[in-house]
Design goal:
Layout lengths: L25 H23 L6 H33 L3 H29 L3 H23 L5 H15 L2 H6 L21
């Protein structure tokens, strides 16, 4: 029976190591190496596979993109209307309408980009959507402070959306949380007989 020195094995150059097994036989060491390599490859395959998109994320992405398209159309119409106001002699309102229309165009592009990012599971889209929904909460609270009690509905919706985005499986989809647990390896334990 041959005893091995404490080895350090690199699996495909990826830095995976097994050490402190100096008391094992060559056969047992080979079995452990095979198990370790199998676990490493399973873990790597699991990390490389994209989680399926949660249904709520799909709904939010579609709503973001549809809202962005509507904002683009509205911003374009308001810009066109602002030029018409200018020809009628309402220059001060035309400038205000043009600024509002331009703002809607920016919001529309941003909503479409965030919707695409959420659809494809991009981490930046997750972070940006959290920031935008928090801004929605702030504007709803400001609107509520000025007596617009119907903004309570928007406030509740924004809070529910942020709560949903903080759920572990949603965060994992965007690469922001722990991945789902792996299935155990199907290899039998190493034998201790020589």
């Amino acid at each position: 029976m041959e005893v091995l020195a404490p080895p350090v094995h690199s699996v495909a150059g990826r830095g995976f190591s097994i050490s402190h097994f100096g008391h094992l036989t060559t056969q047992t060491q080979r079995e452990l190496d095979a198990q370790a390599y199998l676990l490493w490859t399973q873990r790597r395959k699991c990390m490389m596979q994209k989680m399926p998109r949660p249904t709520g994320v799909t709904v939010l992405a579609i709503l973001d993109m549809v809202g962005g398209i509507i904002a683009l159309l509205g911003g374009g119409l308001i810009l066109a209307g602002s030029s018409y106001l200018g020809t009628l002699g309402y220059g001060q309102f035309a400038g205000l309408a043009a600024a509002f229309g331009g703002g809607l165009l920016v919001v529309g592009v941003l909503a479409i980009v965030v919707g695409y990012g959420m659809w494809s599971g991009k981490g930046w889209a997750y972070l940006l959507s959290i920031v935008l929904y928090i801004l929605g909460i702030v504007t709803s609270l400001g609107s509520l402070a000025f007596g617009n009690y119907s903004s309570i509905v928007g406030l509740v919706i924004y809070i529910i959306i942020i709560w949903y985005l903080w759920k572990p499986h949603v965060k994992a989809y965007f690469g922001r949380g722990a991945p789902p647990p792996m299935a155990p390896a199907s290899m039998p334990p190493p034998s201790t007989t020589p």
